Amino acid sequence: MFGFGLKSSVLLIFFFHGIVFSGLLLHKGIRNQNKASLWLSFFVFLCAMYISPFMLGYAGWYSRNPYREIMFFVPFQQLFLIGPVIYFYTQSLLNKSFKLSKKDIVHFLPAIFYFIYSVIILITDKFILDEFYFYADERDKDLAFWYQMSGLISMVFYLVLSIRFYSAYKKIAYQVVSFADTILFVWVQRFLFAFLIILLLRVVFFISNPEWGQFGNKFWYYLCFSILFYYISISGYTNSVRAIIAFRTSLFGYESSYLLKEYETEETENDEEDLIETSTKKETKEFSDLDEWKIKIEELMTTEKLFENPELTLSDVSQELQINPRKVSRIINQGFEMNFNDFINKYRTEAVIEKIQTGENDMKTLLGIAFDCGFNSKSTFNRAFKKQTSLTPKEYIKKSLKTGVKS
Fold this sequence. Notes:
Distance between the termini: 74 Å
CATH class of the largest domain: Mainly Alpha
CATH topology of the largest domain: Rhopdopsin 7-helix transmembrane proteins
Largest sheet: 2 strands, antiparallel
């Protein structure tokens, strides 16, 4: 039933683990009501199916019946599904309120049409004509050049959409929360990068061996693909990801509105572009009292020390000032010429420097001081400190000692 050669056995190992991790992710998604895990489970399953034709082909299934007909009539490689699943997985990671809408069916139409095409082939060749009509050339339709090339284009398209979605999320994060670095998930970047490597490898192998239906050197591509999707499976399962920002995107993700749902008002519902712009004439007029608001925000930071809250958001500041969050954002953008995240981290860094100069670092660790001042991770603290002072915290202390500043 299965020829255990070197190539078939190696791919079988990855196939087996793919099925296992798909099941584990499915269980995790259902148990924790985690949509991201469900999408990743689907992706890993599609990847396991993707390597099946070559795994089974190297095991001899294309050369004997009834296995040969299974290879012909079962659409193992769902190339038109992989792209949309990547896209919706990225959205579900970054947007906790994400859910499929009726209009999202358009993303799955190519896959639906290909499935119908596969069913027509099956019914015609097996039940109507009882002979190979579509398969007269004895070539698996999944490996046809047009399908492989169309699938590659589809995956590139959805990778671009996923990257654009992440970029939009990143822009929002720096504008509305003071802990952006901790929610700009490293895993999302690694996941998209791994998928990019997969697509680049496909392009290379398309060029070096364009006859995709011939096994030839394809084993090395499928081996590389298997290693990468195995990495995605393990890392995706072990990464516990949380998202606090939700925003809207248009049908295909080309025009991101960069709006936070919780901040939408009747005034801005029909004027999305106005929320993004920060330097128009209308804004200049509206914020003629900019200096006054700047003073109020500065007083709020120095007296109330809001920056010490490690989970401080734009909404928290707006509630203290009793004004709209978008107005606070514009005041900070225009008045201080920085985003909300950098603005808050500036005060946190200054607070750390003040404690260092008073010698508090002799009684407490530097990281402990950073946490007291509102930072919530060592990496964020180091980045913010160097951005503000052009020195690392340790370099700053050494410099202070040399210049005679008490530490």
